[in-house]
Structure formats: structure tokens, C-alpha cells
Amino acid sequence: ETHGITFRIQVSVKELLDTDVLLKLLFHLPVNYPSTLPDISVNSDQLTRAQCMDVKDKLLEQAKKHLSEPMVHDLILWIQQHLKYVIKQSATVCNEKPTLSKGTSTEDGIWMLLLHLDHMRAKAKYVKTVEKWTSDLGLTGRLMFMGKIILILLQGDRSNIKEYLILQKTSKVDVDSSGKKCKEKMISVLFETKVQSQHKRFQMFEVKEYSTLDELQKEFETAGLATLFSEFVPPLLK
Questions:
Q1: Of 18, 21, 88, 186, which sits with the fewest C-beta atoms within 10 Å of its C-beta?
Q2: Residue 169 or 144, more confident
Q3: Any idea where the RWD domain is (predicted)?
Q4: DSSP 3-state assignment of 17?
């Protein structure tokens, strides 16, 4: 294994802000863990993006205290016990209300990513997995099939798009020629940028198949992505 492992844990913390808070934690453990700190991402529908970032920072601070020893279980116990205090500290720094949260930060905003996949051998399972990941991470966009071309266009919070890429590259999402589960090794990031005013925001994630290149081009043009299409998609046919 060259990428380490990635897993998600959902933690419910009770009696905080008069409601239960569900934390969605993603840990990516590199191959030399625990000598190297894990990558941690935090999401919660009950907290603002700024509060989630504060929780992540505190977890990384605690992780440094456990360097060179298994730490994930200890980190989960710690945040269950201390989340209330982390949120209180966050509130003194930022008065943003949870009801105003859009799951984004002013620094990152909404981003867009275009991926190219070489093939899908276990198509039904692969598609179902992609749909689950995008749903869990609150991403919208398209999984597009046109002949042998397979594209994934994603929009959402930049940190969630990064989490998606980790999952895409480190999970056994397909099968090899012998039918054995394998990781996606033939994926290309064609384009990544902050969503601009001329770009249409997708309201959901959909899987779509196109009969012709013209149909696929119209999908991009409708989304305000004509330039993106002409620069990156036709070369895939060569």
C-alpha cells in the first residue's frame, strides 16, 4: 500500500447548544502513521465551516501529543469530551451563527473540479460509490458517459472536493482484469478552479449518458463551461 488508508467516523455529541451535534470525521492515515500525523477533515450540519475548522485544528493539536503512538481512538474520545469548549472558544472569535452557514469559508468558497476516468469495469458498483461519496460530502455536478469518455464534474466546498479526491484515489472502487477489487490508478485532474459568476451552479449530482459529442458539449455550454469543454474534452478523443 502506497497511499495509507482513509476512513470516516460519525460521532454524536449530546447536550451541546441544546441539540445533538453529529460530527463527520475523515481520517487519512499515511503509510508511516503513527510516526506521521493523519490528515483530518471535519464536517457537521450543526456547525459553521469556521467552527469545523476550529475543531480540526484542535484535533491536530492533540494528535501532536500522541505522535508515534496510535491516536485515532483517543482523538475521538477527546473531542466528545471537549467539543463544547472548542465551540465556545470559536464563538468568541467569530460571531457567525450556525443558521447562516453555507458549508463554505470566505477563503475557499465554491470550487469546481473536472476529472477524467480511463474506464469502469464494475460500472454499477462504481457509479453507486461515486453517488454515495458526493452525497456524503454535499457535492453537486455530473458523472458523464459519452462513448469511452468518462468525466466527473464536481462543485462544492473546496475541502470536501479534496476529501472526494482522497477517497477516489485510496478506496478500492473498481475491479481489475481478473475481477479483483482495486484502487483507481488511471484518473486525471483536468481542471480545478473557483466557481465564477458565469458558471451555473448545479443543484444536485446526476449520472448522465450522452449519445454524441454535441450532446455532451451542450451540457457544458448550459453550465457556462464552453471554454472548459473545448480545451479539455476533444483531446480525449484522440
A1: 18
A2: 144
A3: 1-86
A4: coil
Q: Which residue has the cell 455529541?
A: 13
Cis-peptide, bond into residue 34, ω within 30° of zero: yes
Cell 480540526 maps to which residue? Answer: 56
Poorest-pLDDT segment among 98-102, 176-180, 222-226: 98-102
The domains located in the chain, with CATH, are: 5-91 (3.10.110.10), 110-236 (3.30.70.100)
* Residue-wise DSSP of 76-109: HHHHHHHHHHHHHHHHHH----GGG--S--TTT-
Residue 9 sits at φ, ψ, to 5 deg, of: -135, 135
HSE (side-chain half, CA atoms, 13 Å) at 34: 14
Q: For residues 4-33, b (16+ Cβ closer than 10 Å) or e, as one string?
A: bebeeeebebeeeeeeebebbbbbbbeeeb
CA distance 44 to 112: 21
CB 27 within 8 A of CB 6: yes
Which residue's entry shows cell 458517459? 145
Pairing type for strands 19-29 and 5-16 reads antiparallel
Question: The C-alpha cell of 156 is what?
Answer: 462544492
Beta bridge partners of 16: 19
Q: Is the dihedral of CA 15, 21, 24, 25 positive or negative?
A: negative
Q: What are phi and psi of 175, to 5 degrees?
A: -125, 155
